[in-house]
Fold these 2 entries.
Entry 1:
Amino acid sequence: MITAFDHIAATYDNDFTHGSIGALQRQKVWDYLEKALPDSPLSILELNCGTGEDAVHLAGQGHNVLATDLSKEMVAVAKSKAENMGLGQRTTFIQCDINKIAQADFDSKFDLIFSNFGGLNCIDAMSLQNLSKVASRLLKPNGRFIGVIMPAFCVWESIYFLQKFKVKKAFRRTQRGPLLAQLNEAQVETWYYTPARIETMFRSEFKLVGLKPIGFFLPPSYLENFFRNKQGMLNKLDSMEDKVNAFSHLSNYSDHYLIDLELTKTTS
Ligand SMILES: C[S@@+](CC[C@H](N)C(=O)[O-])C[C@H]1O[C@@H](n2cnc3c(N)ncnc32)[C@H](O)[C@@H]1O
């Protein structure tokens, strides 16, 4: 099956990963992981790994990463990135749908399941609820599930579209059912979830141990062109972002938020 993300795999790093906004947002996620994770090498299962930027970062820090993605092309980019960086031994990449992760045959349990930048927005609420059960079976006791997800409202997005008089688009994340997000020529179904909704969905297996906005002051990456010659402004927004790091309620109004859940109940 060819997915919408297959078409953008070759340009994803150039457009997002190495874009000024994408890189700054990702750094916020890495800052959190650095503080939250123990120094000892962890066994990590990454969902929707894309081009493997986080997998190679985590492997570079000594962790072992089994990274998965639905898109064959994304997995191919990720694999060659890890090999070029000499991190092939600590990374494994496989093409796998989040919805089929329960059927995958893993040798052992994981310390952490990690999903960055909206992969979880590509699955519907029933699948997410089911993922909580699956994750509880795949994790070691007290294992963590860390997801970076797009909430149902984003201040930046609303201001951007309102000043263009595009009222419907300004509140598009609040609509019922999936939104068809445009990815070059292809479209991808996208669901937006408030942090409270995710917490409720995962509540029977996990407890909330961390929540922080990613992109309250930092803008969404589709504003990259606007900020191209405004690095100074972006740096200011970046330091303002650090100041609101601890204001978890701003997660409801940001481009993304990071939610950190700890396993409380192990299911066999
Ligand atoms: C916005 S990209 C994020 C990629 C990467 N995590 C990052 O931080 O750059 C979303 C990724 O989710 C993947 N994806 C979408 N639906 C998926 C699914 N059902 N199962 C697994 N991966 C999926 C896409 O192929 C894409 O690589």
Entry 2:
Amino acid sequence: MSVKHIGVIGGGITGLTATYELQKHFARIGQPVRITLLEKGGKLGGAIQTLKRDGFVIEKGPDSFLARKPAVLDLSKDLDLMDHLVGMSPAASKSYIYLNGRLHPMPAGLAMGIPTQMKPFIGTRLLSIPGKARAALDLVLPKKKTPGDESLGSLIERRLGSQVADRLVGPILAGIYAGDLHRLSTAATFPQLQAMEEHNRSLILGMVAARNHPLPAMPDPARMQLPPHLRGSMFLTYKGGLGTLVERLADALQQAGTQICLNSPVRQLSRQQEGYAIHLSDQTIQVDRIILAVPAEQAQSILQHASTPLSSRLEQIPSVSVANVVMAFDQAQFKRPLQGSGFVIPRQEGLFITACTWTSMKWSHTAPEGKVLLRAYVGHWADQTHVQLTDQELTHLVLKDLTRILGEQATPLFTEISRHSEAMSQYLVGHVERLQAIEDELGGQFPNLVVAGRSYRGVGIPDCVAQGKAAAQRLYRTNL
Ligand SMILES: Cc1cc2nc3c(=O)[nH]c(=O)nc-3n(C[C@H](O)[C@H](O)[C@H](O)COP(=O)(O)OP(=O)(O)OC[C@H]3O[C@@H](n4cnc5c(N)ncnc54)[C@H](O)[C@@H]3O)c2cc1C
């Protein structure tokens, strides 16, 4: 019997995890297989890129992962990375919203922008009195009668009013999707909100109930292995940055003999009598099975000649481009110490940046003693032009906004700019049905080809890791 060949396309965290899971499985059962990982760029990791400079740990893409979802912790345990984990600094528990020319503390008890504690919500200046009264109507309004998906914007406005949508929920969620609240699907992004309306009628009461009576959690062995001081941290990362995970995965794959091909953009896939042909610019590779761990735009381009219906559905999962501007400073440049993790800015404020993380306050390992690291975010669904500005223009505009917001004029020691072209996947209304149609099409026409990654079932790193693992399991559970 000839050795089977599996191709994984895309060397981001999804493709890396999928490849690792495949390699581990076949080693465990003692079946020889050939696995080839094809990555378009010159580096592995996709959006995850860590840079070390002058004692700073700089994340050019994501900076941490949600600790509550177990996939990354399980993988960290597997890769012997538990000792590398670090949690958020307790000094960063506060965060702010910039509104009407000043920073307002985020009221205590907000969950995804929805109030769960009355006193801080009544006391906040982020909403007007009519805005708060409108939010309180959520407690008495009847629930939606028609079932089905709706946009997050529509749900929040319908229940809590436009001020909560524009000033709280919108800016908080902008960091995850950089998307249009009025087009993002509730069913695909936060299905728990739909369930809350269904069961509790009110989102406020639903959130309060969820906080008071969290679902009984499954015992989570990886989480229980965390040192106690990390168990309370909502987000985690590694002391050497998220790149640590990418490096460790790449090392494990190389040691196991996986063929990793960088600078290998896949142009097309075609079905063969048995298996598939993967077409690159200078060669064609024959494989038996494929994991397509590239975003939907690239999957669409790769599959466009193979299936028109599939390609047109993939086209309906767009992505938005963003940039982030990391700046290092001497702490002495700030007369007033920064306190908290940073701030978000509602779009209506008309500023250039959408948010700023006080990175070194949030993650103490990211800057040497006496230095400060800030990260400003640029670009969202309605602003795709500013991302294309030159480095000088970006630096100038970011500094202008920071001076205005912080009331301090500081000169950075250095600036690192990262542009992420079409990097934030948008789950638009109808995403869940669209995904089902894609799965049906694949199941019918493309046996043993699985798609996974940020365009499909979650954009966060834990979701991508979980998807990579699930994709590998789907492939190896049907006998090779
Ligand atoms: C700026 C930014 C900040 C973020 N912050 C966070 C955060 O703090 N926490 C969090 O959990 N998530 C965060 N995310 C989201 C998360 O990082 C990503 O959704 C996740 O890393 C995506 O992984 P992926 O492997 O699915 O896709 P990608 O990382 O996009 O990887 C896809 C890979 O496929 C390759 N590829 C594409 N086309 C081809 C082709 N034709 N042939 C071969 N290879 C190809 C690409 O080069 C790329 O390496 C952030 C994302 C961005 C952009």
